[in-house]
Amino acid sequence: MPSYYALGYVLFVFTLAIGLMKLGLPSEKRALALWLPGALLIFGTPYGVKSAVLDWRGEQVPVTVTEVERGSGSYHSGETYRCKVEAGGESFWVTGSDQCDQYSRPGDRFEVLRDPEDLVSVSDPDPLIGFSFLVPCVGGALLVMTVAGSRGLKRQP
């Protein structure tokens, strides 16, 4: 998801939360009960959906590194690396992988987990979050937010 979509989504959720608090959330506990699950939904759900899709229909594909690019790091991390890999005559870039690092060289081989329909990006074949875990977590977060929001609203006679 492009960063400007994520920023718009975060601003929309933030505005909704502020609006709910202005409607009458009298306690900080209820506000916290809205913010914590909201943060889980905003930051955890995109990773969870990617992981669940790969868990559901991903295929382990052996790849061969053909090119390694080094990028400048961010404030929180050092240098970043991305590898151009080839699998079955098709080339694509692998980023954010534990297997593509400063020691990677053209000719190296490793396996990645790839969606055959290319709806989500490639990932390491690490333990993944499945839909059977993701759906109850999202539903639970929404339930907690609904209960906290409804209890905080003031009813007018």
Description:
- It is a single chain.
- This protein is of the alpha+beta class and 157 residues long.
- It is built from three helices and four strands.
- The chain has helices spanning 3-24, 28-57, 131-152; strands spanning 59-71, 80-87, 90-95, 109-114.
- The protein has a four-stranded antiparallel β-sheet, with no helix packed on it.
- Helix 1 (3-24) packs antiparallel against helix 2 (28-57) and helix 2 runs antiparallel to helix 3 (131-152).
- The longest helix has 30 residues, at 28-57.
- The model has no long low-confidence stretch (mean pLDDT 79).
Characteristics:
157 residues, alpha+beta, four-stranded antiparallel beta sheet, 4 strands, 47% helix
Strand and helix layout:
Blueprint: H1 3-24, H2 28-57, E1 59-71, E2 80-87, E3 90-95, E4 109-114, H3 131-152
Antiparallel strand pairs: 1-2, 1-4, 2-3
Helix pairs in contact: 1-2, 2-3
Return residue spans where pLDDT drops below 50 for at least 5 consecutive residues. Answer: none
Q: What's the order of the H and E elements?
A: HHEEEEH
How many separate helices?
A: 3
Average pLDDT, to the nearest integer? 79
The portion of residues assigned to helices is: 40-55%
Count of β-strands: 4
In short:
The chain is 47% helix and 21% strand. Helix 1 (3-24) packs antiparallel against helix 2 (28-57) and helix 2 (28-57) packs antiparallel against helix 3.
